[in-house]
Structures are given as C-alpha cells and as structure tokens.
Amino acid sequence: MKPLKLLAMFVIPMGLIIAAVPQNKTNPYKLTAEEVLNEANTRNQFVTADVVADMIVNKDPSLRLIDVRSQDEFEKFSLTGAINIPSANLLSKEYSDILNQDTKMNVFYSNGTLAANEAWMITRQLGYTNNYVLEGGLNYWFDAILNPQKPASVNSDEEFAKYDFRKSAGLALGGGGLAVQPASDQGSASAKPAVKPAAKKKKASGGC
Amino acid sequence: MSTSKEIKQTKYLNPYLGGVLLGLVLLSANFIAGRGLGASGAIKSVVATTIKTVDKNAVKTMPFMAEYAQSHVGNPMKSWLVFEMLGVLVGGFISGALAGRLKLKVEHSPKITSRRRLIFALAGGVLFGFGSQLGRGCTSGAALSGMAVLSLGGFITMMAIFGTAFALAYFFRKNWI
Amino acid sequence: MGPLAPNELISENSNFLFAFLIGIAFGFVLESSGFSSSRKLAGMFYGYDTVVLKVFFTGAITCMLGLLFMSLFGWIDLDLIYVNPTYLTSAIVGGVVMGAGFIMGGFCPGTSFCGAAIGKIDGMVFVAGLFLGVYVFAFTYSWWEKLYMANYLGEPKISASLGLSDGLFGLILILVALAMFRVAEWAEKKFPREAY
After folding, report:
1. How far A16 CA sits from the closest chain B CA (Å)?
2. Are C84 and A206 in contact (CB < 8 Å)?
3. A143, B95, C132, C158: which could form a disulfide with C31 (CB 3.0–4.6 Å)?
4. Residues whose CB is less than 8 angstroms from the CB of residue B65 and which lie 6 or more positions away in sequence, other chains included
C-alpha cells in the first residue's frame, strides 16, 4: 500500500480522537496524602503572631500575608499589607505564581486557623513550599497583639518582654503613638522560618 | 545501494517513515528533558564560551554576553544542545557509514562549479547563523520542535523561513536546477 | 510522570547523557532520510524533491500526537514542556534572514552537521558560516537589541490564539499536512528529477 495512504490511515483516526476528547487538565499531586499528613502533624507550618507582628513592624520584605477569607470580610478588616485570595479561588491560575514560589514567605490567615490550614494543606500537596499558617488566626491576633494581657508580677522576664513587644507592636499596628521596640533581641517565641529556595518545578529552558 | 540502468538513486529511508522516526525522537526529547530538539543554540553556546575565554570581562562589556548569562547559569558548554549536537555528528556519521555514503566531496549541481557552491554555502551559513539568533531558533528548534508543542512563535518563524526561501528560490535557481 | 528532568526524576548528568543519545538518534534519522544532501534539501523549493516537507510535517505531527495522547493518559505534564516564546518582530525578521540563508546555502544548522559528518565539504563550510554569523550577531548585538526584544507576547500556543482546543488544531494540522503531501507527490512527478 502506498506509504501516504498508510500514514493517513493511522494519523486521521488519532487526530479525530484527540480532537474529540477533552483535554486532561488535572493538577498532579506531588506529595502523597500520607506525606502531607505527617508534615501537618509536625505543626511546622505554623508561625506565631509574635513573629508575624515583628516582621510587619520591621517592614520585612519577605513577608506576604494572604487572607483566605471572603472579599467582604477582607474589606472589613485585614492585616497590614495582606492580599486577599479567598479559599474558593485558591487553585485559580492567576495565583499560582504567588503560591508556588521561593522568594517570599506566604502566611495564610483566617479568623481561626481552619481555613488557613486547609489552604496550606492543599498547596503543600501540590508541592508548593514557603507557605505557612498564622497560628491562632485573627482571633488570637486581636487578643494577643492588639490587646495584650499584662503578665502577673511573678512571671518570667521573658513574659514581660513579650508583653512589652506586643504592646508596642499592637500600638504600631493599630495606629498608636508609642515608639516601637524591635523585638529581634528577645528570642521572641519561635525563630522566623527561613524562606526555602524551593525545589521548584522549573520548566526546562530550551529553544535557542 | 540499488542501481538501475538509467538513474542511480541513493537509497534513503521512505520520507514518511523517516518523519515518524523523527517525531519519536522529538517525543522522547520532550518526555525526558522537557524540551524539544535544537541546533543553533549549541552554536551560540560555543560562541559564548570562546568569547568568555578570550575576554573574561565580556559579560560586562558585551550586552550579548550579559543577555546570555542571564538565561544560562554556569558553564555555557554544559548545555543540553551541545551534547545533543555532538550526538548528531555521531549519528549522522554512523548512518552515512552504514549506507556507504561517506565521501569527502562538495555536493553541487553539475551546472555550477564547486567554488561557487562553497561561496554560497558560506554566505548561506552566515545568514542562517545570524538569523537563528534573531529568530531564537532554527528549523530544528523553532520550526520543528515549536510546531510539535504548538508554539505560535515557532510557527511564525517556520512560515517566515519557508516563505522567504520559496520567494527567493527563483533568484538562486541557477545554483540548484 | 513526565517530563523526567523537570520533575527531577533523572539527574542533570543523566539528562546530558540522554541529550547525547537523542542527538545520535536525531542525526541518524536525518541522515538516513537524506537530509545530509543540500541538493535534496533545496529541492523542496523547486519541486523536484519534497522530502523536507514530508519528513518535517510527519515528524511534527507524530510528536504532537504523542504529547497530546501522553497527556491524556496522565503520563506527562504538558505545563512543564518548553514552549518557544513569541517575540513577534524578531521571529519574522529572523525567519526571513534564515530563509535567505537556506536557499543560498542549502542547509540548516542541524542538517549541515549531518552533511559535515559524512564528509560533505559544503556542509562543513556552512557550519563555519554559522559560527561567523553568530559572532557577527554577538558583536553587533546592541544594534539589534531593540528589535530582538520587541513585541513579546509570552508563550502562546497556536491553538489558543485561534481559539481552538489543542486537539482540534491538531486534527486540522493533520488534514492540511496530508493535503500538502498529495500536492508534493504530484509535484515530484511533474518536475524532472535527475540523479544526484
């Protein structure tokens, strides 16, 4: 049989099939459910309110706060410099560059920790790194940072230091007038997690 | 090699079979390395390496080198295309050897001289080398690989290459037919 | 799940080894199909030898179908495959210059290496020309830089810019290519073909 006819016999049906079948657009999971569960149980994805407040006060450029609540709630109140990615839109293509990167530290927050932790789990399973969760969410933020409780006199110096820091940070963040003491020399809470240069799935460069 | 009484034909693969095989090679490149084939990029790598060797500060003084350094970290010779083109030399040699086509000669139409052919080969090479830099690829990289991944840029470059060649064919016909 | 290298399923050195092996296969297929002969390549533009058209389009279609089917089966993540960027101005200007080089030199970079590999001196000279051309570009870069960077459109796919799905475009391409092959075969019968 003429080669051209043979070729056509193969290639046309394949073309028809590929034209008819919808494209496979699934986003492959890079981590197994078990791996994500293990990571979630270490609770390393949490950053404390103190650390975040410190970063805001010091205008740390590596911080990026992401409010995962609805747009309404975001507009009513949001943390300084936060952007809004409602949970429902988390997987939209326009945010993938924000969520899948290795230059900034993304910190998800919501009113509590449920929605923010969900966002972390989903992005983690897609293999993204450098995403964290604000421990305690906004509820804790209001209590601890904006209205810190003065510790009883028997508490440790550390507790007092934390209180002083929170008071001045709270005032700075709430728009108050007191001078702000940077908390970096106080061993405050946990160390700020470093931004990991990601094992980012980079597209191969080519052409040339 | 088959010979007949009237014409001596060189035995090449059936073009459709060759095309399918080529497609499979390209497919494996995409599957393994996430990129298509190419050729001009290897030349660019060698050029960049020689410039770098001769003038270590070239990255600062030559904008070409700066642009190259931006997209290629590390040793320019350690590039996918350089290894691939070395393979092409080997593969072409093996195929030629197996088919008995190894012969040192200048291939040209009997109507022109070797010298004329070589002059045009050089000129063509210079133009093609220059054009491949502008076009960010050649027929292998931009046209073939680009088409396979449905790249618009690749497709446009391909149309420009073949369109121009067809348009100019009349003026160079003496060299070929 | 492919592609292997971007997903870090193989090391960088393995990737380079594969590059070499793939290159061997590439060179072998090109040479076997006759692409080491400048007269065969130029024949495309005079109708007496349409091997370029047939091999080229069959190759592109085979790979395209392969990629689409592999994506369908979940064997490859197409988002990680390199898609050539589109810089409109330089894509056209570069193509025109290359077209001129093609009809004059009778080779393109890949095929000239094949030709050189089997001893074609015109292939070797063409390769030398390639290097010269790139050097010229490198040293005059500042003259062309603006043109080179103009009209960056990202990495659009042809199917997207026509508003078609990849698969539908693929089918159209296949039909167009098959039609071209028929015309090519007619042309070869019509235009005389001497021995070379």
Report:
1. 17
2. yes
3. B95
4. B48, B51, B52, B58, B59, C138
Half-sphere exposure of B141 (CA within 13 A, CB side): 32
Residue A3 to residue B137, Cβ atoms within 8 A: no
Q: Which residues of A touch C168 (CB under 8 A)?
A: 19
Contacts of A168 (CB under 8 A, 6+ apart): A178, A179, A180, A181
What predicted TM-score, i.e. pTM, was given to this entire model? 0.75
End-to-end CA distance of chain A: 40
The answer, yes or no, to whether residue A179 has pLDDT greater than 50, is no
Q: Quick check: helix, strand or coil at residue C76?
A: strand
- Beta carbons of B44 and A208 less than 8 angstroms apart: yes
B 50-109 residues inside an 8 A Cβ radius of C = 51, 62-65, 67, 78, 80-81, 83-97, 99, 101-109
Q: What is the pLDDT of residues A83-97, one digit of tens each?
A: 999 988 888 888 888
End-to-end CA distance of chain C: 46
State CA C173 to chain mean position distance: 16
pLDDT class for A177, splitting at 50, 70, 90? very low
d(CA C85, CA B136) in angstroms, rounded, equals 9
Tell me, what's the pLDDT at A181? 40
